[in-house]
Structure formats: structure tokens, C-alpha cells
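Quick one: Coproporphyrinogen III oxidase from Dokdonia sinensis, C-alpha cells please.
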Amino acid sequence: MIKGILNGLKTYGQSFGLISKLGLWKYFAIPMVISFVTAVTIGLSAWGFSDNLGHWIARIWPWEWGAQTFDTIAQIFSALLIIAVGLILYKHIIMAFSAPFMSPVSEKIEKYLKGENHTHRETSNTEQLVRGIRINVRNLAFELLLTLPILLLNLIPFLGSIVATVLLFLTQAYYAGFGNMDYTLERHYKYRQSVDFVKKNKGQAIGNGMVFMLFLLIPIVGIILVLPVSVTAATVQTVRLLDEEKMLREGKRDLKGAV
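--- reply ---
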């Protein structure tokens, strides 16, 4: 899996050059707006809700002794919870509603890499949107199920917070990479096949998603550029993986034929 993560990271080196070479920036205008508006809306909501959640959690502690310590822990836990859930919601909202815009961009990159005569499954904008919503609702549910128990590790002093932070980052990276890869996979595989494909290539998904998550740490610019750069990198990477899988299948068929 380490090799896959490194491969996922490496493909980002081609992104900016490929976007400019193929003149793709104009296709990212609406997804950039979706990304910015979603980030601002979730950020403002989280800011207003964080104190209330912390105080509500602190009320669980019924004793006066240790109340201040528990209140501090509750504030930290609520802040981490809001940040984690906010990032999860942001990620899946922009990926789902950007699908009709990102899928054609992914297709243009694939045609450049494979040639204009390359064939694949044709899908409409509506199908791309429905597929994007379905994939991201599925991933949102799984990610939330994983995130909540991971956050509980913060209750373990010192080491718990470090382990929780690493696991949260890797979990969010995996599902970010999953969404980016699916813009290409939707032209080749049905829903279930795509899920299985990403599971087999989880290292590449994590590698792509790691840069996605790090981009969000860059104020303003990060949330604007995160989709164009990460989707371009994921497309290059996914096309290569599809080629490798095709060669593997053909090799197995040739071997069976020889036997």
C-alpha cells in the first residue's frame, strides 16, 4: 500500500501543466464556486455551533470536582468533532454536485492520454450527478461511522490524540481520493465494480486524497484549486490503473487459452 500512496502523490507533479496544456481551467469555474460557497457556509455554521456543543457535552459530568478539566476536554473534543464532520460534509458535497463538470474534464484528460478514438461507457449529465450523489452519500455514511470511534481516542491522554489525528487524516484522504477517482471510473464501471476497484487500489486513493486534504490548509486558494488539481492527478493515475488491470485480465485469458 505504501507504493500505491507514493504513486498517488507523484501524479500531482503533472497536474498544473496538464490543465494548462489542455486548456481546462475554464471548465473548473462552477466547481470552484461550489467549493468556495460550501466551505464558507460550513465554516460559519461550525464557528457558531462549536461553543454550544462543548458546553452541552460538559453537562454530562455530574460532579463539581474535575468539572473544569472535563469542560476543557469537552471543548477540545467538540472542536475536533466539528472540524472532522465539517471537512467530511464539505468534501462529499462538492464532489457530488461537481460531478457533471468534473466528469467531462476527466474524459478530456483520458482522451489526451489514450487517443481520440479511445472508447468508453457514455453517460449523461443527469447520470453523472445521480452517480456522484450515490457514491458520496455511501462514502459519507461509511466515513462518519469510522470517524466517531476514532475521535473517542482523544480521551486517551497524549498518545490517543496523536493516533486519532493520523487515523482521521488517512480516513479522510481515502474517501477524498475515492471521489476523485470515480470521475474516471464512472465511464468504465458500474457502481459496485467501482467500489471494488478503489478497495483494491486503496493506497493510490489515500495518496491522492492526502494532497487533497493538505490543499485545504491553504487559506482561500486551497479550497478554490483543490478540485482541479486533485481530479487531474486522479484521472492520470486511474487511467494507468485501468490499463494495468486490462493487461492483467488479457494476460489471464491468454494463459487460459494456452492451457
